[in-house]
Amino acid sequence: MSTIADKPTLSPAETGVAKSAELATPAEHQLPPADPAADGQPIVGGRFAHGNETYATLVWRRFRRSTMGMIGLVLTVALILMAIFGDFFAPMDPKRAEIGFAPPDHVEFSAPDGSFSPIPYIYPIVETGEFDPVTFQPMTGPDKTNPTALGFFVKGHRYNLLGIIPADIHFFGSVDGRPIHFLGTDKFGRDILSRGIVGSQISLTIALAVVSLTTVLGTLIGIASGYLGGRLDAWVQRFVDLVLAFPQLPLYLALTSLIPVTAPSNVFIAFVIGVMAALGWAQLAREVRSKTLALARIEYVRAAIAVGSSDWRIILRHILPNVSSHLIVAVTIAIPSVVLLESFLGYLGFAVKPPLISWGLMLQDTGTFSVIGSYPWILSPVVFVLITVFAFNALGDGLRDAIDPY
């Protein structure tokens, strides 16, 4: 009968060899080494390519995976280009008066003889001479005998490209120079599509100017309040509470009503931008302050303080770069809010005055239900506002997920 003492003892070296032999896996069951190139990641200098990517490249790579974010980016770029080159994209003179409340023209890819045409034709809507058997209203339809061919880069009304270069070439329009109205006309007979394209210049300029001012003010005040702290922080936050406590809509109306009616257009727009910026920076300042309070306690900020770095250097080199990701998202989300606010104030008559053109001012024609019921195309400026709000919101959501995926 064998006992434990009868079993042969192994030296430490032999024990390690035995354990290695027991844990060894046959060659046919071993997994092949991972190939980095198999995932589409090339090796650069013995390292993965993404190991050398900058932070902006990583954000862009994550952003491209967002379908809605890419759609928002494309629409945002298109809106900005439309605003910069508004007169070039407008098919008609936005101040030219035709027939009031004319319905949108009928567009067909068919020639007058009924055959298919790759070039679309415009058929104006006219009265057919018949009456509706129920309402006894005159019936309308496309006039097939009076077609208008469309084309790209056609000649039209003269304008100054970028306010400097005289030009008369338009991106699209009628080949023979006849008036066309894709979205109909307003009560004065002015083309709604052309006014909407040109009106984007004022609406987006106000939005970008207001957001730029609120971002600068909110960032500086929020960082200074959160980093310096003490009595400065207490007094600044009480002032922020005071600004946020005011009901903004009545205050907007009260401040904008102080502008004289005879004031020049530039002065009027500057005052509107100043009022919106003065009431819109407080929320961003509070958000930046909360992030600054957290960043001021991080080790590298304390190390910079210990080596004697100045407050401005710490704020500009250590805190501001870490807050910039939040600022980018806040800007893209704030722009549609300002566009909606400008449209609402313009509808009430407190934002932009004629002869300037903005989306809010165009919506003044929809003030009565009878007009909307009889001429529903007068609501077309709402489409410009909806597209702008969707574009910037989608862009902001995509950037937020790309910058902070966790």
Helices and strands in order, then pairings?
Layout: H1 12-23, E1 43-44, E2 47-48, H2 55-63, H3 67-84, H4 86-89, E3 106-110, E4 116-123, E5 125-131, E6 138-142, E7 148-161, E8 165-174, H5 192-228, H6 230-245, H7 248-256, H8 265-280, H9 282-295, H10 299-306, H11 311-348, H12 359-362, H13 369-374, H14 381-403
Antiparallel strand pairs: 1-2, 3-4, 4-7, 5-6, 7-8
Helix pairs in contact: 2-14, 3-5, 3-14, 5-6, 5-8, 5-9, 5-11, 6-9, 7-8, 9-11, 10-11, 11-14
Summarize the structure.
The chain has helices spanning 12-23, 55-63, 67-84, 86-89, 192-228, 230-245, 248-256, 265-280, 282-295, 299-306, 311-348, 359-362, 369-374, 381-403; strands at residues 43-44, 47-48, 106-110, 116-123, 125-131, 138-142, 148-161, 165-174.
Structure description:
This protein has 406 residues and is an alpha+beta fold. It has two domains: 228 residues, Orthogonal Bundle (MetI-like fold); 76 residues, no CATH class. A four-stranded antiparallel β-sheet has the order 3-4-7-8. A hairpin with a 6-residue loop joins strand 5 and strand 6. Helix 3 packs across helix 14. The radius of gyration is 32 Å and the shape is elongated. The N and C termini lie far apart (65 Å).
